[in-house]
Amino acid sequence: MKINETTVNNIPIIDIRTDKFKTFTIRISFRNTLDEKTTTVRNILSRMMVKRTKKLRTETELVQFLAKYYGAHLTEGTTKRGDSHVVNFTIEFANERFIHEDLNIFNDLCEFLNDMLTTPFEYNEEWSAFLEQEKRLHKNKLSLLMDSSMQRAYINMLNIMFKDEPNRHMSFGKIEHIDSITLDDIMREHKKMMKEDEMVILVVGQTSDEEVESLKKIYSRDNYVKLPYHGFDGQITNVINYQTDYEKIEQAKTILGFRIEKKQADMMSARIFNRMFGGSAASYLFMNLREKLSLAYQIHSELDIKNGVLFAIAGVDFNRVKETEIHVMKELDKFRNGEFTEEFLEESKNQFLSARLDSMDKPKGVIATLYGHFLAGVDFEYVDEQLSRVTRESVINVAKHTHLDTVYTLTGGETNESETL
Amino acid sequence: MKVKHYKDIDETVYHEKMNNGLEVIYIKKSGFNKKFVTYTAKFGSIDNDFTVDGTRYKIPDGIAHFLEHKMFEKEDGDVFNKFSQKGANANAFTSYDRTTYLFSCTENFYENLKLLMDMVEKPFFTDESVKKEIGIINEEIKMYQDNPGFRVYNQLLESLYQKHPIRIDIAGTLESISEITKETLYLCHETFYAPNNMVMVIVGDFDTEELFDFIRTHQENRNIEDLKEITHHFEVEPKAVLERISETSMNVSDTRLMLGFKYLEHGEEDKYNEAKRDIIMMFALDMVFGAQSKFYYEMINESLIDESFNFGFSAEHTYGHTLFTSRGSNSKEVVDRILDIIEEVKTTDYFTEEMLLSQKRELLGDYLSSLDSPEYIANQYTKYLLDGNNLYEIPSIVEEITLEDVKATFVEVLDPKYMSESLVVPYE
């Protein structure tokens, strides 16, 4: 695998050359500050962009066009990274080498991507009905997400824990913001995205200089844009918020939200700590709460170190919510007190390396890893060096600077256990 | 050992049947860091009535899944932990007709392979550990009960089928799993985890001889000679559905619909034609209901469906059905429109050569993309193998499919006489 980073037409291009895949994957990423006012607009905009273009005027025409290129897959998605909102367009398609037909797939699809990226510049009233359709479909998508009781619990948790902080916003926007969006909002956001966002093109597959030449057709910018990459600064308080909501559900979903003092805790040590605490099948939460105590089937922890946040998430019996909270805290205390073996620490570090190698076997995994490196301005050697510096003391230090902030429970039980016990 | 190279897709498969009956398949992926292994027993949730050694057994629902959970626990601790110590990620899953144990790693491969084989081959159950597992699995069952997609699906299977065990949740129920004892687990293990009832698929970049020598030595050391024959019993499933409509209420934002068409006409078809039929149905459904179709476009425009609309066909030896899922308050109209378009396809020349060519191209593209994934290869190779087919022969099956095949199969499989509707509606 060979990685070439160049700048073409004022856009950074990360070309990852490998012959182990039978496909090509191109991702175009746009990044800007996460802003409540624009996340919903950016979601509707990206949906519209992958469905109709100037040249392919209906969804059917566009799908048929992609089908001709052996079912090229075009998708869009938005994510939250630190304090940024990222809009991704990804196209995956077969390498011509395996196809017995004379098609210039790579080049044609780069031209198509240009058509896709520039179409919103020409939106006019004719596109209004299409906008209304996409607003309705996005609304449906968000209400569908809320049909999952775990997702409801998670969103409620964010709203309580980050009451007045922008970290409460989800990457897909808000249902109540959809109705008022106009075509002007969409066009304005598109212009801003094309001009002011940090834009990157990543490509993985058996590329050659010929393919890189085709990539130039995707887009051209007047200026090179590089934006700062930060996380949110959360406030550590000594008060723990408790909230329990009741619904007709079969199992309680309980989430413990922790804040990590970012300035005190090393980022790589926090990653390793999360693996050991609840981020793997060998973790303390999994081994002790699930396997030994049979408290839960679902139990794990998730880390967003850029924003200094850790969640422990469990699906438990209505009557065992408080017991779960107590045991999660006991497990955390074990790390604070250094009750873990040197072997477990080394295993967890090895797991981290193994997961990275694993992701390098998937086109999208390669892209995600390399995009992460691009944002953080690091490379594999730097990450390896950071990992080698993780010690028993640095993991204990992360655990000591991890503070419980909020305990949220969505339950079907009849009493508020968190208050009664 | 048999070796086959598939030139067009540049893949090589090595296949050997061990002396004790275990089938081992190695698929070489040059340049991949990841090593992926599946070890599969032909024992799934529907295998709850069987005869072995002249005795017939009816075992509790959910036992295949329960056994899968218990195999990770041994006298000296949890095997998850040991895989983790060796840098591997292990997992397992149970489906209607098989249980698969798997791991992936980038290092310590042979140690992990030995761990997997020992874990699956050497059971250890106690009364106490069986009791403890009931608690965890009960939480798993409850987690699924809170999932509207799962509820609408299970309710549909309960309506479509009258007797077939597919209508029972793979995990069983709290009542059924409470009946499980260590004795029944040992019986199931001895019966279904015998080497001649298992398949191992390995994907990665290895020295072929070293790999097969390692597995051969391990399997020979097991000294298993007494291989038993298993007879499965299924009650005859009537063609008719049990209930036309079923409904339940949940905390959902809008009504969920799942429409099913039961299809039991098959039975004695040869394996190759079953694989061909599955691909034909995938094509036919996509041409009529997929994102390129007139139906989909109109239904989206009329706000009758949204992007959650989906469909699929699934058939094995003893069951078969086509499912449609949709979301929205106008489920009745959605059902009517699906029935209208089925009728239109039956009575007109709906399918065209151009549509079929487009399907074939798309499938080939998706297929190539799937071959970039060791997980996909291992899981799908196992599925095709157990069904008596070969994953790497898909392109040649696709070549053969004609428009006539598509229409005939679509008409045969989607018969509104054998239809059920399952609804999950919001609480009032």
TrEMBL record, chain A:
Pfam families: Peptidase_M16_C
Gene source species: Phocicoccus pinnipedialis
Entry's transmembrane regions: none
GO molecular function, one term: metal ion binding
Name under which the protein is recorded: Peptidase M16 inactive domain protein
InterPro entries reported for this sequence: Metalloenz_LuxS/M16, MPP/UQCRC_Complex, Peptidase_M16_C
Annotated PANTHER family: INACTIVE METALLOPROTEASE YMFF-RELATED (PTHR11851:SF186), METALLOPROTEASE (PTHR11851)
NCBIfam families for this protein: YfmF_fam
Residue ranges of every copy of the Peptidase M16 C-terminal domain listed in the record: 180-351
TrEMBL record, chain B:
Keyword list, A-Z: Hydrolase, Protease
Signal peptide location: none
InterPro entries: Metalloenz_LuxS/M16, MPP/UQCRC_Complex, Pept_M16_N, Peptidase_M16_C
Domain of life: Bacteria
Domain (Peptidase M16 C-terminal) ranges: 180-361
Any one biological process term the GO annotation gives: proteolysis
GO MF term set: metal ion binding; peptidase activity
Record domain Peptidase M16 N-terminal: where: 60-173
Short name of any one Pfam family annotated for the protein: Peptidase_M16
Protein name from the UniProt record: Zinc protease AlbF
Gene transcribed to yield this protein: albF
